[in-house]
Known about the structure:
Blueprint: E1 7-13, H1 25-28, H2 33-47, E2 49-55, H3 59-72, E3 75-79, H4 88-97, E4 101-105, E5 127-130, H5 135-150
Parallel strand pairs: 1-2, 1-3, 3-4, 4-5
Helix pairs in contact: 2-5, 3-4
Amino acid sequence: xTETSQAIVMIVNGPNLNLLGKREPHxxxxxxxxxxxxxxxxxxxxxxxxxxxxxxxxEGVIIDLVQEARERCAGIIINPAGLTTTSIxxxxxxxxxxxxxxxxxxxxxxxxxxxxHNSYVSKAADxxxxxxxxxxxxxxxxRMATLVSAG
Length: 151
């Protein structure tokens, strides 16, 4: 990365987040994933970062994105959604990335069903942000800016 290039942060969104704003708005709110991306773009620009915003419903694609980030990004912000509690493969990919990782959840997973309380992703995360709604993505970008500048 040259002096004038901006650090790229990959923001990865897991299964069903493409339905944000439509699926269970009483739990997840009315903002769409496009709204979240627009907000992240503005925040990243304020922080001197560039974002690569992605979503997939497929575990293997998400693992491929993490591996791609390893090669060209300064950090990863991930909302693993349903993969939070199930994917050791995602944990392994995040650990292998050797990048700062911030885990984001729109809701506080500890106030929800018990099966949602354990996060494999947290074992790879430098920071976990949950329960702040979609504002958690902005908070994650602000924290990532600090982690990237310190690294």
